[in-house]
Amino acid sequence: MKWLISLFVIFLFSFNIHASNAIKIKSDKLIYDGEKRESLFEGNVEAVYDNTTVNSDKMIVYINENNRPVKIICIGNVKVVRDNILSLSDRAEMDIIKDLTVLKGNVKIWQNKNYLEGDEVYIYNKEKRLEVKNIKDKKVKIIFYPDEKVK
C-alpha cells in the first residue's frame, strides 16, 4: 500500500482548491443562484488553477457566505491533468471542508506508465490516503512499474 500512496502523492493535491493563483473557469453557459449559493457551468467546462486543468460537461460550484468554494461537483467526461498525472471518470466530487475527493464511474488514472482502474476512488488529502472500490464482482486493476520515479 505504501507504493500506492507514493504513486498518487501528486494526484492527491490535484483537486485541492487552495490554489495559490486565480481559478479560471470557462464554459458555454453559466447560471448563478444566489439563494442556493451555487454556480452551474455547462458545456465544455474547463477550470484551470496552478498547474491543474479540469474538464467536464458540467460543473457545480457551491460557495459559503464568504464566497469561498466549499464543494465542487463535476459531471460527465471528467478529465483532470496535473503534471504527469491524468485521470478520467464519469463524475468527481470535491468536498473542500473535508478535503476529500471522490472519483466515480469508470475511473482511470495514469501516472507515466503506471495505471489504476476502478469504479470509485476516494482520495483523503489530509491523510494522504486513498481507497479504490469496485461494484459486484469486478476487480480493481493496477499496473505498476517499480522503476518509475515519483516526482
Please describe the topology of this protein.
Blueprint (H helix, E strand, L loop, with lengths): L1 H6 L1 H4 L11 E3 L2 E5 L4 E12 L2 E12 L5 E14 L2 E11 L4 E12 L2 E11 L4 E5 L7 E3 L8
Antiparallel strand pairs: 1-3, 2-3, 3-4, 4-5, 5-6, 6-7, 7-8, 8-9, 8-10
The biggest beta sheet, please? 10 strands, antiparallel
Strand percent estimate: over 45%
The strand count comes to 10
Total of DSSP H or I helical runs spanning 4+ residues: 2
Overall pLDDT level? 81
Principal-axis shape? globular
SSE sequence, one letter per element: HHEEEEEEEEEE
- The secondary structure category is mainly beta
> Radius of gyration in whole Å, from Cα?
15 Å
Between the first and last Cα atoms, what is the distance in angstroms?
18 Å
Low-confidence stretches: 1-17
Residue share in helices? under 10%
What does this structure look like?
7% of the residues lie in helices and 58% in strands. The protein has helices spanning 2-7, 9-12; strands at 24-26, 29-33, 38-49, 52-63, 69-82, 85-95, 100-111, 114-124, 129-133, 141-143. Strands 1, 2, 3, 4, 5, 6, 7, 8, 9 and 10 form a ten-stranded antiparallel beta sheet that branches.
Structure summary:
This protein is mainly β and 151 residues long. 7% of the residues lie in helices and 58% in strands.
